[in-house]
Prior knowledge:
single chain; alpha+beta; 6 strands; about 15% helix; about 30% strand; globular
Amino acid sequence: MTTTDGTMTIGTPTDGGWRIKTNDAGTHYVDILAMIYNYRIVLTPIAAPLLIDRFWCYAGHDLQTLLRTFLAAHAWDGALDGEPLDWNKNGQTGEWREP
């Protein structure tokens, strides 16, 4: 997304990351959090904004990983029965994929 002056922004800044959008069902926010070793897409319930329902990790902490995470968050509808693209770790199952 771009601002009116043409600069690129990730989303609305939050404590520790960015709020990208509200899911299509209107029940959760799709957020990106900056963790120590990775970026993480999380589903945050609108009714309980200090909780995280589900999360997926994107290995790395460089600009390329941030952009990959950002694109995956934007492309995903945030459905509770789905998942974003190209993650490396599924926080619910512990499944790991090589970056």
